[in-house]
Each structure stands twice: as structure tokens, then as C-alpha cells.
Amino acid sequence: MQTDASGEKALSSTWQKHSVPGSYVDLPGVYCLRSNQCQWPEAELWRTYRMLTDLEAVFRCFKSDPGFRPIFHSKEERADSHLFITVLAYQFVQLIRRCLKESGINANSSWRTLREIMSTQCRVTASFRRADGKALHVRKATRAEPEQMSIYRALKVNPAPGGISKTIV
């Protein structure tokens, strides 16, 4: 932290988020699995269980975070459509994870963790009153943090989504 000459007022501060291996995010508990698939080797049973819990976590994130829960469909075709869109979105999650893994980024992080990393970047609109009485609105994305930049590079995505837009009203 940088302070003024008196040392009493902060002029700037920086912080960096560090994930802790073996923490709750990575290892949520101990499990005892029981299955009717007696012929499966332990590794396959565990892999299937992890895939299922990951799928459930991503679906929960898709529905809960934007505030879409609970969803009550009165028609079967609406429920089918909802499920189809969610499965399609999950395929995008898997594609993103694969691209990150190929670039050497830990793609085993939960989807929620990846969203939290990316959530600090946002688009900001600044409004100014011009001399002629009209308002100028300038909209642009904040600068990506280093961890976000590595994700953008791995996915080959522009780190300043939307560019800069100027509107005079």
C-alpha cells in the first residue's frame, strides 16, 4: 500500500487473489460411494462421480447466479428446451476448460471459481455534460488483471470486450 507523506492516508493499494491447494474449493470433503455398477473399476466409478458432481455444480451455477431459480415449467416442451440450452452451455464450459488446459492453465477449477476470476472486470459508462448541453456517454471495459489476461490469451479472446463506444444524447 502506498501512503501520503504523513503515513495516515492511503493513496493506492494493490491486492492479488491466491487459491490455496487443498482448500474447501478443491477438496470439499470425504465420500463413500455406493453403486450398482459392480464391474466398474474404482477409477472409472470415481471419474464418473466427479463428472456428475461437476455437471450438477455447473448447472446450479447457471441457474442460481443469474437468479433464474426456481424454474417451474408448465409445459413439457419448455422444460425440454431449458434442459437443451443448459446442456449446450455445459458443452461451452467444457470447451473453455479444454482450451485453458491446453494452454497450461488449471482447468480443473470449478466453473464458479473461473467466473469469480473473470468477474472483477466489467464495463463502465462515464457520462459528461458538454458545453452545448448534450450528454456524452463513454462506455469501455476496465483493464484486465494478469490472471484474466492469461485466460483471455488462452481462449484467444479480446481482453477489452465491446471496445469503446461513445454516444451523444
Number of E-type strands? 5
Strand order of the largest sheet: 3-4-5
Label the overall shape.
extended
The H/E string reads EEHHHEEHE
Mean pLDDT: 81
What share of the residues does DSSP label as strand, in percent? 5-15%
Structure overview:
The protein has 169 residues and is of the alpha+beta class. The protein has a domain at 120-168. It is built from four helices and five strands, in the order ββαααββαβ. The protein has helices at 42-64, 76-102, 111-118, 146-155, and strands at 2-3, 10-12, 123-129, 135-141, 165-168. The protein has a three-stranded antiparallel sheet with strand order 3-4-5, with no helix packed on it. It has a two-stranded antiparallel ribbon with strand order 1-2. A hairpin with a 5-residue loop joins strand 3 (123-129) and strand 4 (135-141). The longest helix has 27 residues, at 76-102. The radius of gyration is 22 Å and the shape is extended. The model has no long low-confidence stretch (mean pLDDT 81).
